[in-house]
């Protein structure tokens, strides 16, 4: 492998491709379960026959529970990250999580073939437990990979996040192909859930290949490049020591009449001076406290929390129940295309736009105002043709109107989230950027959880 100044190159951008696959694999669980909500709702919300008559069917509110039990693990394991990082090795966290996610996807695929006579309460409980655990392992996987990709050059973080951004689109396309196959519902669902099994297996193999690539070994194993120094000897830089030696030699050559003891004393005084200066520099560059960092980024923390609160409060719990006014084949494709595919594509575009155009600026009060204005999407989507409904009348029954609302809803979500996450580290000193990133990750997870919780009352209000 060719090298530049002793640093190996990423031949064929193989490490970049692997981290793109790893990014894709981290969000496959959430997106595949979310996109398959139609399958789960059809299986759970079936009518019950008693004494020759149709009794009231039981409402499981699958979309709400699925959203809540997907996001709560993210919040919990974000808080537990420091504990896990210290006590569990990287290979166990990443490799073990991928193996367990693969097992749970296989279990979900097996459940598809179990007859529908299976008790619905049992099926619901197993599915909810699967969602909780699969997203718990997914949260550990995501946090660990963020730490891993942080050891590589910055562009690899962008590649990793691009993979994450396309996970939803990948799941939506898989669902569209499953429907287009025109197979029976069980076969289509089985093929759909086999897809993430293959995807997770490829992700696991990709992670196992990383140690075999010289570029990855160089960056991932070279963890001693931090600026933290542990001993007073390390506080004295090498070049400073060399300077002292040269000064000593020069002094010995030009001041032969000085005694050896005076020379030693001067040397010690010089070392102490350098050490004192280095210690002052180290203390001045020490990291700020979490509260000090929070005071600088609280506006961006609020923005990312509010964006995800609004987004998750109606997507997918409310949007997945919107019905088209047309009948025929389009009826089967309506939700996969207009709800899931459109949302994920526009969300990805919104995130990508921030790399070339950032408006408003991080100091502008217009940005938080723009974020808060997104709350208007909540009533707009609730006024679409959501079925079944009890309280609010349908105001927008046109498919094009719903698609237009979804387009701006998802585009603004991706744009505002990425802008918030980009601005936060810029508001603090470089030494505090890592703390700012960790805080923003926590508030991101908080927004997802709050939005998932709000989806229950909002769906009941429709």
Automatic annotation (TrEMBL):
**Compartment(s):** Basolateral cell membrane
**Membrane topology of the entry:** Multi-pass membrane protein
Q: What keywords would UniProt list here?
A: Membrane, Transmembrane, Transmembrane helix, Transport
Q: Please provide, alphabetically and separated by semicolons, the GO molecular function terms listed in this UniProt record.
A: uridine transmembrane transporter activity
The reply to whether Transmembrane helix figures as a keyword in the UniProt entry is yes
Cited Pfam families: Nucleoside_tran (PF01733)
Instruction: Tell me one GO biological process term.
Output: thymine transport
Gene Ontology CC, one term: basolateral plasma membrane
TM region(s), chain numbering: 12-40, 60-80, 92-112, 132-152, 159-180, 192-210, 297-318, 333-354, 366-388, 400-424, 436-456
What InterPro entries does this protein's entry cite?
ENT1/ENT2, Eqnu_transpt, MFS_trans_sf
Q: Where is the signal peptide?
A: none
Q: Does the keyword DNA damage apply?
A: no
Q: Which regions form coiled coils? A: none
The primary site where this protein sits is: membrane
Per the similarity annotation, which family is this? Belongs to the SLC29A/ENT transporter (TC 2.A.57) family.
- Protein's name in the database: Major facilitator superfamily (MFS) profile domain-containing protein
User: Could you tell me which species this protein originates from?
Assistant: Danionella cerebrum
